[in-house]
Amino acid sequence: MSPTTITKIVLAMLLWAACFPLITAGLQYSPHLTFATLRAILAAATLVFVAVWLQRPFPRGWRTWVTLGVVGLGATSLGFLGMFHAAEFVSPGLATVIANAQPLLATMLGVAWLGERLARVGWGGLLIGFAGILVIALPQLGDGARDGTAIGFAYIVLAAVGVTVSNVAIKSIAGQVDGLFAMGFQMLIGSVPLAVAALLLEDQTAIQWTSVFVMSLLGLALFGSALVYWLWFSVLEEVELNRAIVFSFLVPIFGLTIGALFFGERLSAVQFSGIVLVIAGIVLVNLSGRTQSQKSGA
Questions:
Q1: Which residue numbers delimit the EamA domain (predicted)?
Q2: For residue 135, how many other CB atoms are within 10 A of its CB?
Q3: Rounded alpha-carbon distances, angstroms, from residue 69 to 80, 239, 248
Q4: Which of the pair, 95 or 261, is modelled with greater confidence?
Q5: Fewest CB atoms within 10 Å of the CB: 20, 44, 105, 133?
């Protein structure tokens, strides 16, 4: 894996981690589904505009459009729905643990659907990384039992499954379609169910167009959606899904770092040990992937 690819992955994970405080800030001024819909539409419009401006090739073929539909419903419809609603019902610690089962699920689907292979060392790395997530979330897990936990659990699982399926679908078309158009159209497709639900269930006049809300929306749409999905698509054009997805374990680490730098939160010794486990897991998965590549090339 090249330094440029690693930089793209790390930047994508940092941007995804920054989404959580932006969502929390913006939800004070807008209904959930309406906020999610605006994020998706603004991000989609940005990517499609850039693609047209750069005269990128338009996606063609019914298989491509079906796949983009799967990505949109998974990553945008289910992913945004779960992400925007789960915070109401469960603690951040519980949410972190459940959501970060996604690399394990994605790797299993990658093996079954894409024919990717991962050595035992790689599977061990995934388990070590997930163990690190458990350790990191340990101080907050005690706050998980509250009214509505079951509903929150369902929302997170819904989001994790949606994002997992979408990642496998993205990998299946990576390199075959332009990334700007692909990610723009998947968010446009995914925004439709969100918009319908928002119109039926929420009052759009309740939005308060404060500076905080506008900055949160722009940050989420332009950087936490448009830029990050274009980066992720370009990464999956170059490397196997199982080697890239394990970096998702970095998201809660970056989240803790953001909390420490900007919100005065402190990292415990237990959390530092979890960070070490996560990094060890990522290294093991990628060493395993490099060994497999060398064997197949020999």
A1: 8-137, 151-286
A2: 19
A3: 15, 23, 23
A4: 261
A5: 105
